[in-house]
Design goal:
By secondary structure, the protein is α+β, with helices and mostly antiparallel strands. The chain is built from four helices and twelve strands. It has helices spanning 3-10, 55-63, 76-82, 151-155; strands at residues 15-16, 18-24, 27-33, 36-40, 45-51, 65-70, 95-97, 100-102, 108-120, 123-135, 141-144, 147-150. The chain has a seven-stranded antiparallel beta sheet with strand order 3-2-6-9-10-5-4. Strands 1-11-12 form a three-stranded antiparallel beta sheet. Strand 11 and strand 12 (147-150) form a beta hairpin. The termini are far apart. Flavin-adenine dinucleotide binds next to strand 3, strand 5, helix 2 and helix 3.
Amino acid sequence: MDDRLFRNAMGQFATGVTIITSPTEDGVHGMTANAFKSVSLSPKLIAISIDERATMLETIQQSNEFGVSFLSKEQQPISMHFANQKRLEEEVEFTYLDGVPIIPHSLASVVCTVHEMIVAGDHTIFIGAVKDVVVNEGEPLLFYEGRYGTYESIKQ
Ligand code: FAD
């Protein structure tokens, strides 16, 4: 099957947008991701999928912990920054939950330790055991057909 056809088909699945964050020796590494899934309620597990070329792969392998922050519609510039699409002019801020960095003012953030790591083709699936969560008010940033959108733009 052609790669483009597969990508187009996957792009028909509308998602939210997250920032994965993980501590490094000299600070924090962040990257944009939409391959996120809630996996289990008891125990509380979530999953993310990281490209073998991403710096984040080695970062999580070393730190053994990561945060996932669900972005609000106002946070598209943060998504673009952490996906190398457009740099933010201002410095990126992080806050900490149970010692794990997260993006402040997100709709919700989850912090995890690595429960299991599964190499799947050219990606690695990290299953995270949830240590803590924080929830805020707001509306989501969405991603569909390779474009950002908002709940309002999709409702029209
Ligand atoms: P880099 O490309 O080195 O870093 C990403 C950017 O973040 C750089 O600009 C870097 O300077 C900046 N940055 C990192 N840490 C900090 C910090 N502490 N302070 C300030 N800036 C910092 N890829 C996947 O593997 N899985 C997915 O699920 C996925 N979903 C995506 C969803 C969307 C909507 C988009 C747009 C992209 C997605 N990507 C996904 C692609 C991924 O975001 C990019 O390939 C990203 O560049 C990979 O990051 P990296 O870890 O290689 O780090």
